[in-house]
Prior knowledge:
Layout: H1 13-22, H2 33-63, H3 67-103, H4 107-134, H5 136-142, H6 147-162, H7 164-180, H8 183-206, H9 216-238, H10 256-288, H11 292-328, H12 332-359, H13 361-366, H14 372-386, H15 389-404, H16 409-433, H17 438-460
Helix pairs in contact: 1-2, 2-8, 2-11, 3-4, 3-6, 3-7, 3-10, 3-11, 4-6, 4-7, 4-10, 5-6, 6-9, 7-8, 7-9, 8-9, 10-16, 11-12, 11-14, 11-15, 12-14, 12-15, 14-17, 15-17, 16-17
Amino acid sequence: MESGISILEKKGFWQLVRAAVAGEQKDFTSGDLKRALFMLAVPMILEMVMESLFAVVDVFYVSRVGTNAVATVGLTESVMMLIYAIAVGLSMAATAFVARRTGEKDLHAAANAAVQALYLAMIIAIPLSIAGIIFAEDILRLMGGSSELIRDGKNFTRIQLGGHIVIMFLFLNNAIFRGVGDAAIAMRVLWVANILNMTLGPIFIFGLGPVPALGVTGAAVATTLGRGIGVLFQFYNLFSKRSLIRIEWGDVKLKLGLVAQMLRVSLGGMSQFFIHSASWLLMVRILSTFGSSAVAGFTIAIRVIIFTILPSWGLANAAATLVGQNLGAKQPERAEQSVWTAAYYNVLFLTSVSFVFFIFAREIVGVFSQEPAVLRNGVLCLRIICLGYVFYAYGMVIGQAFNGAGDTKTPTYMNLVCFWLVQIPMAYVLARMFKIGPAGVFAAQAFSFSLVAVVGIVIFRRGKWMEVKV
């Protein structure tokens, strides 16, 4: 490896991009740190770009069905956040364990950790999928959906929640690839899954040939099919002889001791995102009291925000992998420097995006809906939330750094305080008591995410995360 050499000194920028997409570099514990971050971040960012592009395209299609259809997606996804919390929690543990073992140069132990994570996912996901299928209507009713919305959207919710096991595997397998440093495979999986989503979406939503128009239900069918095929592609690569973390059939054994150890780390990650997701759910519940237009406007704005936040998560995930692998290689200073470097580049990116969003909010939201109430709420949400982008840039990288080190408890406590003790009461007081309306909910979200970032920086600088054992 070319230690101490700048990214562009010996290779051109596009040559390095091609090398990163091809997954040429496998060792990230030595050599030039900026190059290592670049080689990991490019495929992870491209992975998240496709995921974020799908989020925007999907709501674009659904918005053509009607306001209730967009609101159905918003209400369902607020509940799906709880499912994502479990998937992300397991993924954090998988990345931490696999990255640490990879840094120790023990790929057999990394493969064992991956298998136990998959067992844990099945144990948790199957009952939740069954519950989602059975209680779909009750969930929409609990979230404040009207009788008309429930009638038209129940099948969308049923399919989305019933496909929980697919979501779990998609998250978890990609976390395994990222942990071992094979970010290019994770990128290809998301591209396959989401290109299928975007291709099948209009076919099932609006109908084509023998395929009937299913409306908003068609969006769920397309998403589940696309993700399911992506999962099959993941398993093909996990068991392929060319895979860096190659799993042999002899490794497919349940090891309760390792499962229990992984569950302990996972619980911190699950709790961390469950707290965040449950608070998000309550925020949407407060918002739903202002009608479907408020929820629809919020849903559109959040999809647009995701378009930029997810690529930033790609950079944060690269930092998490570098932290895990370098702690495994007994290089805590390199692990810390990778975090500050990733955060710096994230700030540059999100700050520039925030200017565009603030200035062109009406034009951006107007692409998805011209209904006055929806447009008004969407523009308001986009402008308020993008004001905190500088803070989010640091917060997401530092949060993932804790998780990459296996310290899932610290972000959990941070989320508990900032989201439950600050965000929810603040949203209710501003929106209902001070009668600011939806703007109060949006302001509470922007403030709480910024607070998480500030608290995270203070705790990270103390360095206790370097001492965590996994």
